[in-house]
Structures are given as C-alpha cells and as structure tokens.
Amino acid sequence: xxxLNSICVLRLSAIGDTCNAVAAVQAIQRQHPQASITWxxxxxxxxxxxxxxxIEFVVFNKKDGLAAFRTLxxxxxxxxxxxxxxxxxxxxANLASLCIPAKRRIGYxxxxxxxxxxxxxxxxxxxxxxPHVLDTFLQFAxxxxxxxxxxxxxxPVADEDQRWxxxxxxxxxxxxxxxxxxxxxxxxxxxxxxxxxxxDHAAQNGFSVYLCGGPTELELTLASDIMGSCNHxxxxxxxxxxxxxxxxxxxxxxxxxxxxxxxxxxxxxxxxPVIGLYAHSNPARTGPYSWQNYVVDAYSRLIxxxxxxxxxxxxxxxxxxxxxxxxHISKEQVCTxxxxxxxxxxx
Length: 347
Prior knowledge:
InterPro entries: Glyco_trans_9, LPS_LOS_Heptosyltrfase. The chain is α/β, with parallel strands linked by helices.
C-alpha cells in the first residue's frame, strides 16, 4: 500500500456512533502515524471528541441547512486528500462528501449502502455477515491496512473536567452507579419506577447512584419522576454537565445503566462496564460493544414473536417500534444483572 499523507473521515453523527468510530480512527493513526487526519463531524459530537491527539475537526452543523454545505466547501477549497473514508450512508453525509476533494473515496459494501451512497464512492469496504456497528467502522481501518485487533480508545479529558467529575462523587461508598435513563427516542426509555427500584437496590448494596443526561424537558421530567419514586434518592445531575464532563464522570464510575443511547457507548470508550437495556434494536449490532454479556435483551424474544423468526434469520438491523416494548424488561432482571456485574467485576 502506498504511503498515505492525508486522510479525511466523514462521520457526522451520532454521539454513540462517533465514539465507536474513534476506535477505527485511532487504529488508522497507529498504522499511518505520518498521515494528517481531518474528521468532518457534527457540532455536538465535536464538542465531545475535541482534543483527540492528531485530529483536525471540521464541524458540519446540520442546523445551518444549506449554509453548512457552503461552509464545508469553503473550508475544503484548495485541499485534496489521499483518501476519504465515507463512514455514513445518510443522504446528508453523501451530499457533504461532494465538498471534500479526494482521490480515493471508500464507502460501504453494496449490502450496507443506501440513500444513493454508491454514487458518491469509488471503493468499498469488504462485505461482512451481521457485524456490530463498531466492527463495521474497523473495516474502514482495515481497508487502509490496519490489522484487525480489539478496539482501543484514547479520548483525552481536561483536568477541569476530571475535577468536576471528582467533585460530584460521594465519599465513603462501595462504588458509583451512573444511570443515564433517557434515549433520544421516548419509546426506548424504561419506566421511572423501575429505574427507581434498581437505584434503591444499588443504594442498599452500598453504592452511590447518580442520574445523568441532557437539559431537555424529557430528560429533566424523567429524572424528576425517578427521584420521586426512590426511597434512597440518587444524586441528580441531569442537565448539569457538558459532554466532556459526562464522559469524565462515566470514566470515574464503576458501572453505568442505560438504554439504547449515546452515553452507553461513551461508557464503553471510557472503559466502564455497562448494563444496556434493549428492546427496539438488536444489541448484537448496536449494543455496548465491550459489555454485550451485560445487556438485558428483550429484543431477541420480541422480534421472534413479531416476525415468527429469530433475529439471525431476519434482515440485519431490523428494528421494532412501540412504546410498550420496554415493559418487557423487568426490574427483577435488571437487579439480577446488577448483582452479576458487581460479582464478576469485583465491585
């Protein structure tokens, strides 16, 4: 393979996907230490990943509409990359790729291409049978010669963010459980009373419990409902942290509980065990990568009930819809999983 001097990565969103993509980008850095790497990324995602060693971030703010494309084109004027890794098939990302001059334009294989993706690339990653999203990203690294290896992350955290996280942690406790209760889609949220039961169970076992999340009305209301249902109210930090501060807290925690949401993948990148709650999407594809064995999985049973076939006989990535699906995850299941993680991780 010829020497690569300039590489552009195009992955705009979302938080969880970009955290997974970091493992691939850093594998490329290890394989091509001489190459400059530019990453075209969304605004919130850049705020989380800013400071990654050796990465130039170019922010594409989708809220700017057509102006975002004009800004990207101006930023890329006069530049030409040896290779563009087009790691997103959404139409917005495909159109954004037109603003990025590159000789090689590597995208997805035919089976995983959609939204006219094939028209915007001239090379493809290798086909794969039912991969996790992170394994798919690692295929882009493999396309540039990086050896297949377990993913690794090095996401820097500033001293002030680490101090903020330390300041939130309760002293004299057995361990720290962070609950991130809200997903971006309301239907993927578990019931507040059940979160409260798990929080109380953790507190009774000597853990300090923290609620975390963003400042949206949905997240604030869900946190308030959980707090009101607890016998041992957690420390409520919802709406009080930046993404960098949240990452620092997840890294400092001993265990994280979350549904299918970006902070679950942030915790994976931070090296913290995750109990994932999944009913709508296949955790084998989108679950917390390093902690698949700690997923409380209602999806596999529900997808077979709905379609009459197990997930491995259905199109990869098949999702379920419905506001009632999370009801199929019981508080007893999650408390049992909590006990298992505490035992296996010696917490």
